Amino acid sequence: MLLCLFCMLLGCSNRTTTMADYDIVPLPQEIARKDAGAFVPNEQTKICYDPNCEGQKKNAQFLALYLNQLTGLNLEITEKKQSKNVILLKNDFRHSTAEAYRLTVDAKSIVIDGADVAGTFRGIQTVRKSLAGTKTGDRIAFPAVEITDYPRFAYRGTHLDVSRHLFSTDDVKTVIDMLALHNINYFHWHITDDQGWRIEIKSRPKLTTIGSMRRQTVIGKNTGEFDGIPYGGYYTQEEVKDIVRYAQDRYITIIPEVDLPGHAVATLAAYPELGCTGGPYEVEGQWGIFEDVLCAGNEDIFTFLEDVYSEIMALFPSEYINVGGDECPKTRWKTCPKCQAKIKELGLEKDDHHTAEEYLQSYVIQRMERFINSKGRRVIGWDEILEGGIAPDATVLSWRGIEGGIEAAQQHHDVIMAPTSYFYFDYYQSQDHRLEPFGIGGYVPVEKVYSFDPLPEELTADEHRYVIGVQANLWTEYVTTAAHLQYMYLPRLAALCEVQWLEQERRDYRHFLPRVMKLTKIYDLLGYRYAEHIFDVTATVESDFEAREMEITLHTQDDARIYYSLDGGNPVDGILYEQPLRIGQTTTLKAVAVRDGEIRRVFEQTYNINKATFKNIALKDAPSTNYVSEQTTVLVDGIQSTKAYNSGEWLGFYGNDLDVTVDLGESTEISEVKAGNYISLCDAIFPATKVQVYVSEDNETFTEVYSAQMTDRPSERNGNLTAFAASFNPVHARYVRIVSETVKAIPDWMDGQAGRPAFQFVDELVIN
Predict the structure, then answer these.
(1) Tens of pLDDT along 356-385?
(2) What are the tens digits of pLDDT across the range 560-578?
(3) Which helix (H) or strand (E) holds 207?
(4) Which of 112, 142, 196, 716 is most enclosed, with most CB atoms within 10 A?
(5) Residue 748: active-site member
(6) Active-site residue, selected from the candidate residues 193, 259, 426, 637
(7) CB 174 within 8 A of CB 486
(8) How far is CA 405 from CA 328, 329, 416, in A?
(9) Annotated catalytic, 193?
(10) Which overall architecture, per CATH, does domain 155-526 show?
């Protein structure tokens, strides 16, 4: 029927007709397609709204804007009702779930009927996303349908840290627009931390005159090197009010986070009398966790906090106020006379599984909760607030896995699931870091986000009701620009929003992929930068040691057509991929997917078949059990890994050296040995310090042919991958022994890790 309709519409005009597609992100709960023609808007179409319903005029304006962006149509907005050629906005839909809506389309009209005005807005987003990929000037046809839709979770959150790096008000508004596109209704705004206080507090002006500015910023991952450039800034209260209004117009609630009692160095720099030592303190220019925190035994901190939170609550009408409560070292409290006196006064020295200092933190959180509750608000905190006893009405953000969320739900506290391994959007989206902006590490691709089940099996059906939502977090130690910010969110926000919206059994990653690929057309239209990994060609390699070949299978996530070349040429002009490739010599493979004439990133990998490849090897010492490939043969499989150290493609050594002997099978002339090293200083991963090469004909008597000390201080600014290369006069040998020494004691310039052994990660031995 739709094909006939499409042909009929084509006959009416020389313009291209595009059919709206309701398979969007997130997928609506119920889609009932109707045999009732299609609605084709034109310049005479009106957008009608109920003037008696506050918010619907704003909704109508949004719809008109979206349709204009996508189609070029400039539709009139009116209060006057009409029966045909109309898009009608209302909120009469009876449904038990907030933000539910019903979308009805026939030949005469589109009706978006929300259970509330927010529901109408969500329906508008569905209409908007159904037009992804349309072109300005196209004739648009909406097939007849009845959609009934509603969210799975009431709390659908996303977080942004602006303490480490500050973003303009326009940048923040763009993030809010991105959240609206993805049906997200809470924006957790992290506005204070050790590296900067980012909001004007009029009763405490030093928070911005002093606390918002750091003298300099560390280069890389706490390398001990600094840029020497002052960095700072903050949002005025008027700017905050403007951003709050902007979010409210899009039915998004902003939850502010003012961290306590830890992550407070910027606070202490401004008001040193609030710390245990009295300072002096300096706004931190490094990343991490710091021992200087608010003095829990000092009554003045509560006066300070009540003043600050009073101004915060005046700016943010949110029911929830986030007090942080995470990563608070107790070192200062253990030796602070005031804190120890407070512990004795409160009788917190108990013989159980919590320390007195953990109970002291709970006292601080609970006391502030009582103050916040007295203002009609509720507290949210990270899962550390469970330690020492949780505040009575607090909601827990479970970030260190799901265990904290399970514990809180079992205690009948509301829980928001935000585990690092699924929802930390500062983590890389690819294990190949050449494809990524420099970042903190970790690996959370779109598929991993999408796979999360928010309701743990450890909870009963009754306890599941305490899981009120899901949240993704974006910390910005290494995110410095708006483009990078958008890149880290997108398209992972699409996976997040479907986790938040749909029941687990209704989600299917293979069905999700084409829908999110279509959604990127709107990203393109709006100029959003996003990660394109879902479009990439990937390769699976099986090494055949007996045949001394490798078999390479190419994939795309949507089974797109792939073209490749094996001679370094442009793959677009190459061969259509139809079956796995067999390679037995050094080859540079290039491949690209082609979709509707559109070409994305080119896959490129050199497979180095050398004298060591596919040969037998023997290790003197086993690799670290925490980071060991399933097979030590990764050292001679012909593939130099470009992925992360924990990808399974590296061998890691901790406290001992790489000492490996390669059996070349017969006496062979050689003059060079190379191997790849992975560097990540903040993870205590260093390159080799000394390399030695020995040769032998009988595997018993070895002669040294190379020895060199590596004396340069490693720098991450040049990338995470390096290599050592040993060149020597040609010799004949059957056995080659390579010794690559690991750092036994990390140098003093590495704060917090000096003196510990380091890791060495090695992949792919090359012998020529």
Answers:
(1) 999 999 999 999 999 999 999 999 999 999
(2) 999 999 998 999 999 999 9
(3) helix 206-209
(4) 112
(5) no
(6) 193
(7) yes
(8) 19, 22, 7
(9) yes
(10) Alpha-Beta Barrel (3.20)
